[in-house]
Amino acid sequence: MQTVSKIIKDKMDSLETTNDKQEEQNSLTWLLRDEWESRIEKFDTCNEDKLVEMRNEATEYAKDLFLRKDKGKGRLLSLIGNSGTGKTFLAEQIFQYAKKNLFHSEELRRVSSEMNGFYRGFMFIDCLDLSDKLKDFQTKENYLERIRYAYLVVLDDLFSVHDKSGYYASEIIRILNHRRNKFTIITDNNSMRQIADIERRVASRLIRDDAKFVDVGETTDYNLRKYIK
User: Which end of the chain is more exposed for a tag (fewer CB within 10 A), N or C?
Assistant: First the structure.
């Protein structure tokens, strides 16, 4: 059974070859509307109590994550699963906890010293925006350096970018190599198997070094520690 995202992608690809583009565009508009309505329907169940629960569980996970003294193991977390399940919200809560509680910490001063002063803070990156920045060859290397030395990086919607050339995937591999043993959170609508189908080298980097992943759609209480794989 095709997912809505797959149907939309196929429709977008068909715009390049169809003779009746207006009809196709109208069809695509309806599909986008249906997907948006399905997301709203899912979040209708996320009342304020549920959001508080998600926030609390993300905070508890963040406390465990950033207090570890394991020299990098388990510092990569992938939040995967269907759209509308709360992956970005959970990533944002972990990110905000880190900014609030770690910015002036002794741990950050230690890490900055180990990196010869190259510590550059926290980055929450929309991967569609990342794709555009990677195409700007005048500023790309400076931007990648910021990602390399950031204490925490979130890459949101990793494969929301459809690039048949393979350039985007190769740059993601490069980023993940730079982020090895550094705090990194990935969100994506694909399962780990689907990510492997898209780019096996990316999938391999998402599971090495005791990296963790959670299918958020499978959780019932958003306790990341319990559902981690």
Answer: N
